[in-house]
Design a protein that fits this description.
With 254 residues, the protein is of the alpha/beta class. The chain contains ten helices and eleven strands. It folds into two domains: 94 residues, NIF3 (NGG1p interacting factor 3)-like (Udp-n-acetylmuramoylalanyl-d-glutamate--2,6- Diaminopimelate Ligase, Chain: A, domain 1), CATH 3.40.1390; 118 residues, NIF3 (NGG1p interacting factor 3)-like (Udp-n-acetylmuramoylalanyl-d-glutamate--2,6- Diaminopimelate Ligase, Chain: A, domain 1), CATH 3.40.1390. The protein is 33% helix and 24% strand. The strands form two sheets. The chain has a six-stranded mixed beta sheet with strand order 5-6-8-9-10-7. Strand 3, helix 3 and strand 4 form a beta-alpha-beta unit. The longest helix is centred in the middle third of the chain and has 12 residues. It is elongated, with a radius of gyration of 19 Å.
Length: 254
Amino acid sequence: MTTVGDIYRLIDRFAPFRTAMDFDNSGLLAGAEETPVRRALLSLDITPDVVREASERSAQLIVSHHPVIFHPLRALRPGTAPYLLAQAGIAAVCAHTNLDLAPGGVNDCLAERLGLRGVRALKESGGLAEALLGETAKEYAPREFAQFVKAALGCGGLFYADGGRAVSRVGLCGGAGGEYLYEAAERGCQAFVTGEAKHHELTDAETLGVTLVAAGHFRTEDVVIPPLLERLKKEFPEVEFLRAERSHCPENYL
């Protein structure tokens, strides 16, 4: 029988938990390694609704990208995701920044979704790529490129700063990666794609001539879930891995 620990160790082989950034809280955050797993849900986030879905579908484990416990808990409140996990006896394995950095992880999946060629590290940390860059299949005008990103990621909407020049080299970092804009400019990128961007990053992007596309945290990271699901299915065919139906992008656009 496959256990929570078996699945944890498989993820640890291709996205070692020891490589997670210092601020992170990745790992086995609920439950016990020896728990047998017959069914598991995958989700970008472990929300109360996702835990309820896991319980209703008789899952023993949720594998997520974002940690269900990020800041130290001062109280365990009814209705919260950690409380519901403990109440239902459901384990949680959360692979966050270790999965961002890993080959085949979040950033690689985002680059693949955008069809980039010649993908390589934009910035490295300990030999692992924090952000990537690559070339587009064709040259885009700034607005045209933003529209391409919107379609490629299925965004309900996005915002961008117009860099004022044609786009053929793109930097990227899934999630909150606006800080890598400056490395992208230094490396000759005409565009940079991430999930979130601050006001000063948008104004700096215009000055630097880089089209900065903020496509949403969920949309730039959820790209990793389908490939991760298929990888786990292949490694553990006796376990039923399902994508959480209640995992969704919380952003709404008017």
